[in-house]
Amino acid sequence: MSRIRDAGDSALLLEWDDVIDPRVNSQAIAVATALRDARLPGVRDVVSTYRSVALFFEPLKADPRALRDALMRAVSTPLEIVRGDTIEVPVTYGGETGPDLSVVAAWAGLSPDEVAERHAGVEYRVFMLGFLPGFGYLGSVDERIAAPRRDTPRLRVPVGSVGIAGKQSGVYPRASPGGWQVIGWSPIHLFDPARSPSALLEPGDTVRFVPMPATQAASALAGRAAHEGRPPSTSPVEGGARTVTVVRPGLFTTIQDRGRWGHQASGVSVGGALDVLSHRIANLLVGNPADAATLEVTIAGPELRIEQGARVAVAGADLQATIDGITAPTGVATVCGPGSILRFGERRSGARAYVAFDGGVDVTPLLGSRATHVGAALGGIDGRALAAGDRLPLGSPAAGAVSRTIASSVIKPAGGARLRVLPGPQDDFFPEPAFTLLERTRFTVTPQSNRMGYRLSGGVIPRVPNREMISDAAFVGAIQVPASGEPFLLMSDRQTTGGYPQMATVITADLPLAGQLAPGDWVEFSLCTRDEAIAALRDQEAMLDGLT
Question: For residue 506, which of 485, 484, 483, 490 has the smallest C-alpha distance?
């Protein structure tokens, strides 16, 4: 049985029964493949999970009714179980690189060698990718060794770690926090953005874990450091190119554009500017196309030296930007001569300012985008925030590009914001009073917040008792509620999948406002209709059309 749910105003979620089953998973993979091949107007991304398909689209360019019809047509087509390639994954069990092998052995009442034998003794299906770029959710682990996640997640799990979480297994493609039981290590390279396809595994593939002989383990461990990163992505600066030098980097300054669409099925987050509206305005002011790369400046800004001169515009948060000691004008580009200095002062309102240079920041695109995703070490300059001494190449201004002005300023939050939401996609995990509580509570953005999401305090959202969900697609703007009841607001760098239900999703028109929130700010939520969400987005586009 299948059903379609709304995930905000820019995504649909097609679900089957709440089970982990190869036949259901095969249907999800086949439907996702058919939808990608159909190239439906306005569709940005299609992602299959254990037992669902997420369809992401542009709200003003796609017809949700036509997309629902396409989903149902795909479901009604007879499908076979999808069987992909078989990939052998070498693994060394236990020791320093498998610190939880003895823990799992004690839990199972077996010896460590028996746990390793059982783990390597079955074939695993790749049900989906998510969590990290290239991370495959593999099933199913032998029930005897299907130990639950650790009570306390590790802050850092090394790249290549082989883990167990209940009946799931997986290999970490890069170092990251994680709560899985780490029983071994593999030298396999699961994700490489320079490779095509970037992810080694695909949904429907089969994985076999092959124990590594002792003679190979030492050499594999010696190469471990090579897996901790990847070759730098920095573009060499040509001799005649215009550049901007980072004198001081500020609190957290990154290169951003509108994001990396089309790769969520491989576990790659969309990312991009948190306040895409201000990003677009800054680009329009200097005559750039909307997707040119800008700098996203967070709370405390950098000091930048514009070496060969450029047109510059700042939009978004008021962080007291100055150019050569003079306040940068609002709503208009400034022509800067060689050696001009752009500085920022104290925060007055908002949290993120966007700096556009004519021609855009011209680092090499990675998977179709220049956006920096620090958690995945992708894009920008080596996948990191800017550092003192960085030289940023600028592109050539577009032919016939004209600077523009904006008469009215965009509203920026002063201490907080009220965000409109649509219920779902997992609203059935919450009793009706939970939505009343959501609308009546003033939450606070805690310091444990970043571009992946905001942890909110101030209220506990009740869930339907004794009900857990299978990991599923995650959506930007979703209010995700763990068992504790303290919600998270998922933002641009969110993981592509998650295991907590999402009770409601911020509408597209209000995501820029959410992107301007900082720790300590308050946030409230109000339910609205889809018609109201689309009307608000059309008003926003009309404002952009008003740039003269």
Answer: 490
Q: How far apart are the C-alpha atoms of 524 and 518, rounded to whole Å?
A: 14
From 422, 419, 420, select the one nearest 530 (Cα to Cα). Answer: 422
Residues 419/527, Cβ–Cβ less than 8 Å: no
Confidence of residue 237 (pLDDT cuts 50, 70, 90): low
Judge contact between 422 and 527, C-beta under 8 A. yes
Encode pLDDT of 469-485 as tens digits: 899 999 999 999 998 89
Cα(98)–Cα(180) distance, integer angstroms: 11
Q: Per-residue pLDDT tens for 91-111?
A: 999 999 999 999 999 999 999
List beta partners, residue 176.
Answer: 157
Closest to 128 measured CA to CA, from 22, 55, 37: 22
Would you state the pLDDT for residue 228?
Answer: 47
Are 417 and 513 in contact by the 8 Å Cβ rule? The answer is yes
pTM for the whole thing? 0.92
Domain ranges of the chain: 3-76, 86-227, 243-393, 416-545
Beta strands in 293-452 (DSSP E): 294-298, 303-306, 310-318, 322-323, 326-327, 334-336, 340-343, 349-357, 391-393, 416-423, 443-445
Task: List the one residue out of 51, 66, 45 whose CA is nearest residue 2.
Answer: 51
Expressed in angstroms, the distance from the first to the final Cα of the chain is 52
Q: Is the pLDDT of residue 232 over 50?
A: no
Residue 69, helix vs strand vs coil: helix
- What homologous superfamily is domain 416-545 in, according to CATH? Cyclophilin-like (2.40.100.10)
Fold match, 3-76 / 416-545: no
pLDDT tens column, 250-291: 999 999 999 999 999 999 999 999 999 999 999 999 999 999
Chain segment 195-205, per-residue pLDDT in tens: 999 999 999 99
What is 86-227's CATH topology?
A: Cyclophilin (2.40.100)
Fold of 3-76: Gyrase A; domain 2 (3.30.1360)
User: What's the pLDDT at 224?
Assistant: 53
Burial of residue 215, with CB atoms counted within 10 A of its CB: 0-12 exposed, 13-18 middle, 19 or more buried:
exposed
